[in-house]
């Protein structure tokens, strides 16, 4: 086996909530860092996500299953540590850790990837502009009433949607009023 054929074990970690094409592109970049990359993807524990980032939409099982179904991932670790240490790198025989190069301040450290950078085991990836879990959640919240209406029309009840009785009837009134106004304008 020559040097180009040597398998390189690359580790990428994240929350991967509401897995989207930005996540997939990150993993694709990681997979393509070397000609023969074995990509290990760490999905952070639910406990750590809630402690350091806040509530996630998907639970740990759902986030892990989403990553497992991404064609770029060869191996998935759950729960993955919030911050990688030397023991974790050695235990999993990780050659490189890949993440975007912006220092990730968390858990009382200035950069969660500082150790990997110091050890020369860090490879930078680029973020995909225009997509993030935060943006998706923001869009859903902005159009909340449209999504509530959509799900009610599909048979969900107000309790399943976490709606109080007052909110439910207020929305029903608004929908009826708006539809009546729209018909008169047509």
UniProtKB/TrEMBL annotation:
Which keywords has UniProt assigned to this entry? Lipid biosynthesis, Lipid metabolism, Nucleotidyltransferase, Phospholipid biosynthesis, Phospholipid metabolism, Transferase
Which Pfam families does the annotation name? CTP_transf_like
Family matches, as Gene3D superfamilies: HUPs
Superkingdom, taxonomy of origin: Eukaryota
Q: Which SUPFAM superfamilies match?
A: Nucleotidylyl transferase
Keyword Plastid listed? The answer is no
Name all Cytidyltransferase-like domain ranges.
11-137
Q: Could you tell me the EC number(s) of this protein?
A: 2.7.7.15
Keyword set includes Manganese:
no
One GO molecular function term of this record is: phosphatidylcholine binding
Family classification: Belongs to the cytidylyltransferase family.
- The name this protein carries in UniProt is choline-phosphate cytidylyltransferase
Organism encoding this protein: Paramecium tetraurelia
């Amino acid at each position: 086996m020559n040097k180009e054929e040597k398998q390189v074990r690359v580790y990428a970690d994240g929350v991967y909530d509401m897995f989207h094409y930005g996540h997939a592109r990150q993993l694709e970049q990681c997979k393509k860092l070397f000609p023969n990359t074995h990509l290990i993807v760490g999905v952070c524990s639910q406990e750590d996500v809630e402690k350091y980032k806040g509530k996630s939409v998907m639970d740990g099982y759902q986030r892990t299953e989403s990553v497992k179904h991404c064609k770029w991932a060869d191996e998935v670790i759950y729960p993955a540590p919030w911050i990688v240490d030397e023991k974790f790198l050695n235990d999993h025989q990780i050659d490189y850790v890949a993440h975007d190069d912006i220092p990730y301040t968390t858990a009382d450290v200035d950069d969660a990837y500082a150790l990997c950078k110091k050890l020369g085991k860090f490879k930078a990836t680029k973020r995909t502009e225009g997509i993030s879990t935060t943006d998706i959640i923001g869009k859903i919240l902005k159009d909340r009433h449209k999504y509530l209406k959509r799900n009610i029309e599909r048979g969900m009840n107000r309790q399943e949607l976490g709606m109080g009785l007052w909110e439910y009837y207020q929305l029903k009134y608004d929908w009826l009023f708006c539809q009546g106004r729209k018909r008169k304008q047509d």
